[in-house]
Amino acid sequence: xxxxxxxxxxxxxxxxxxxxxxxxxxxxxNDCSQLIIPVINEIFHENYxxxxxxxxxxxEHYINGQEGQLKKRVTDNCFEIQGETKxxxxxxxxxxxxxxxxxxMFEYGTQIALDxxxxxxxxxxxxxxxxxxxxxxxxxxxxDSMKIYMKTPGGDVSYDIPxxxxxxxxxxxxxxxxxxxxxxxxxxxxxSRLKEYNTSPEGLEMLKKEYGYIKNRLEKxxxxxxxxxxxxxxxxxxxxxxxxxxxxxxxxxxEGVNEVMGGKILDYEAKQIxxxxxEQxxEQxxEQxxEQANIASAKKMxxxxxxxxxxxxxxxxxxxxLEDIKEEMIKxxxxxxxxxxxxxxxxxxH
Length: 350
Hints:
Elements: H1 3-12, E1 15-16, H2 20-31, H3 36-44, E2 53-56, E3 60-64, E4 70-74, E5 78-82, E6 86-94, H4 101-116, E7 118-120, E8 123-125, E9 130-135, E10 145-152, E11 155-165, H5 171-176, H6 194-199, H7 201-223, H8 229-246, H9 251-261, H10 267-283, H11 289-303, H12 308-315, H13 319-332
Parallel strand pairs: 1-4, 6-9, 9-11
Antiparallel strand pairs: 2-5, 3-4, 5-6, 7-8, 10-11
Helix pairs in contact: 2-8, 7-9, 8-9, 10-11, 10-12, 11-12, 11-13
């Protein structure tokens, strides 16, 4: 077998490890990165104020899986927070525990450390990131922390990996601690009762009231300028994606919660998102800031299921440019074709 055939064989064994919950986690982390800071404060007992600079280290890695398969993983859940000192963090999202998780955490940590490592005078210096796991499901056997222990020729080394369990947090705690990152995953707290809610008007009404509370609190945070319009819509959009996957067998539940949450961008909200983007572009001194802000705004409006013709009107971007942006978002998994409002749908949305 020649080199080209060998390479093709390897590539054909690559499996991309992605679930809808991973996609939601990565979207929140990359598009609303400031939301992760309170989570880091909660997990590691830090005292970040929320306005620190976050820098991502997006590196594509391949790890060994079962039966010799290579599994592709983009470790864009590794990031640096610049506070009084710079610290690297690596946070994994897990819907359930599995026996290979610690191995993966170690593999990712090692690769991240090597990416940032330096060799000086025949000495390789590496720094492992502060690692943690966010469990969407948990039970009495789910650990509060895990440990990696290494026996080396130079001595024994170990470090802890703290665990955050979404199901341990009430809605009040989520908002009191500003853990807005957890809101899309809150439906996991009700997973065991979804079947009941689907057939019980009283149970469904109780669930809808909770999501009405979420909607009202997010809107209040928006009016108080504690989050921007795009962050509110992103949280809502990601909440719906998690709901539609977790409760896909329960039509009454998905329709009931979606009815409460809404989520489509109205004209005045589109203008607000556009203005926020322009202000941010000017503040950062970006070259051609207005155009870049319009591109950022267009992405937000596409996520909000706004019609293409209206996005063109609000952003002054051409249809060709919007098609390029749309294709880029579909390829990256941020957007699905079915979520895009076409002009022919315009009359149906009113």
